[in-house]
Amino acid sequence: MGNKNEDGEKLMLFDGVLEAMPLFAKELVAGGVAGGFAKTVVAPLDRVKILFQTRGAEFQSTGLYGSAKRIATTEGFLGFYRGNGASIARIIPYAALHYMSYEQYRRWIKHSFPDVWKGPTLDLVAGSLSGGTAVLFTYPLDLIRTKLAYQVVSTTKLNAPGMVNSERVYRGILDCFAKTYKAGGIRGLYRGVAPSLVGIFPYAGLKFYFYEEMKCHVPEKHRESILAKLTCGSVAGLLGQIFTYPLEVVRRQMQVQKLRASDNVQLKGTLKTLFMIAETQGWKQLFSGLSINYIKVVPSVAIGFTVYDMMKSCLKVPSRDEAAVDMVTNKRISQPTHQYTLHSFKYSSARWRLYTISKEVYMYFCTPS
């Protein structure tokens, strides 16, 4: 009996915490968990992709299997996760901001322009704005992750042919951050941000657009199944990548330019860098690692969307329609009648306590003395 009572009290406490959490906080938690989980699953493919984009001469000739074998030989299993600490440190706040700001932008646009922004265009615009917001806040962590992943450091006495620049420049996340800031200041931490922003606006918008659009065509009885969400997320990630991948290659090469001792050419400006890569390395380099990216993006976006939806369900995040109704209802509750208040909260003691405390605080600070 004691255990059952304790479990019941813990469950009530948990429900009370969930009730007290603001909607945006729940969306932040759901997005952060989804991003971190998805990124960890595809981290080895991400490492190989970055090496394809930035060390083309060394890795492209060996292909995916040969590149993976080379990393395993020179760095061991943990080599596949080099830079993943910085990646997780970035992706959790990035994904949290990305998903949360998407929901916030979507609600704000729908509320402010009810007669203009409707249908798929709403997801496209909200997704684009949320992608730009997340990039601006977390870009330095992406830069650090790329620099750490670019390093190929042998942890054994084996010398693989064709390997260059095997000296470890950065000892970890903090060391890389400090040296990057010392060398270039704030501008150094945001090197390559322009192609990131140019690329993220269409990619993030299209990703959310295709995901929400595909879910609309799934039969109602299958809409909540994991398989349906994985399928919709896979196609959304695949289609969103097609138009923006060359800009990612430009961004990666700009990020690691300082680490290339043999580079004499300064990469300046997104378009200039894009044409310079095409001229000096060939147009194929702009799509280097795209096949790996497809293999990575499909599970990454699919897992991200699926885990996000599952986390929203666990955190009792209301549906978008319910959230829109709550926005209107909350305005009415600010000056409620006793009958309406009791009707709204009589089924939840946690909500009633929260309302009572909020009312007392409001009366204390807002009532004229």
TrEMBL record:
Keywords, in A-Z order: Membrane, Repeat, Transmembrane, Transport
Source superkingdom: Eukaryota
Cell compartment(s), UniProt: Membrane
GO biological process, one term: transmembrane transport
GO cellular component, one term: membrane
Record flagged with keyword Transmembrane: yes
Pfam families per UniProt: Mito_carr
Solcar repeats: 22-108, 118-217, 224-314
Presence of the UniProt keyword Oxidoreductase in the record: no
Alphabetical list of InterPro entries matching this protein: MCP, MCP_dom_sf, MCP_transmembrane
Membrane topology (UniProt): Multi-pass membrane protein
Family designation: Belongs to the mitochondrial carrier (TC 2.A.29) family.
Protein name: Mitochondrial carrier protein
